[in-house]
Design brief:
The protein is an alpha/beta fold. It has one domain (25-129): Barwin-like endoglucanases (Beta Barrel), CATH 2.40.40.10. It has helices at 2-20, 112-118, and strands at 24-35, 62-65, 80-83, 89-95, 103-107, 121-129. The protein has a 6-stranded mixed barrel with strand order 1-5-2-4-3-6. Strand 3 and strand 4 form a beta hairpin. The longest helix has 19 residues, at 2-20.
Length: 130
C-alpha cells in the first residue's frame, strides 16, 4: 500500500509544478513618481477614492498606472506588481491621466515630504500573467 501512496504524492507534485509553470513573469522599465491622499494631487473633494472606487488608506502598498500599461497583457485593476528596490508587492488600484505613458505613481499616504523625496525615478516593475 505504501507504494501506491508514493505514486499519488509524485503525481500531486508534478501537477503543482505544471500549474506553477503556466504563469509568466513580465518585466518593464517605467518612470515612477509618488502621490498622496491630498486634494491638490487627486480628484477634488475626494482625495481617498481611487479610479475604480477603492478607498486608499495610509500604509497601503498601492500604485496608479498610466493607461497605456493597462493595455499590456496582464496589468489590470488588482494586479500585484513588484517594484525592484522596494519591499513587498504593490496592488494596482488607481489609473493616471491619459497624458502619461510608461509611468506609475506610488501611493505614499498623506506624507507629502516622503513623496517629494522620492521624486522621479526609473524603476523596473514585474507582474505575473496567467
Amino acid at each position: 500500500m505504501k507504494y501506491k501512496t508514493k505514486n499519488y504524492h509524485i503525481i500531486f507534485i508534478l501537477c503543482v509544478l505544471f500549474l506553477a509553470s503556466c504563469t509568466e513573469t513580465k518585466t518593464m522599465e517605467v518612470t515612477a513618481t509618488a502621490y498622496n491622499s491630498v486634494e491638490s494631487q487627486t480628484k477634488k473633494g475626494d482625495a481617498v477614492t481611487a479610479a475604480w472606487g477603492d478607498k486608499l488608506r495610509p500604509g497601503m502598498k498601492a500604485i496608479a498606472v498610466s493607461r497605456d500599461l493597462l493595455e499590456v497583457e496582464g496589468i489590470e485593476h488588482g494586479t500585484d506588481v513588484t517594484i525592484k528596490g522596494l519591499p513587498g508587492k504593490y496592488k494596482v488600484l488607481d489609473k493616471m491621466n491619459k497624458r502619461w505613458k510608461k509611468k506609475i505613481d506610488i501611493y505614499m499616504g498623506e506624507n507629502v515630504g516622503r513623496a517629494k523625496e522620492w521624486g522621479r525615478q526609473k524603476v523596473e516593475i514585474s507582474w505575473k500573467v496567467d
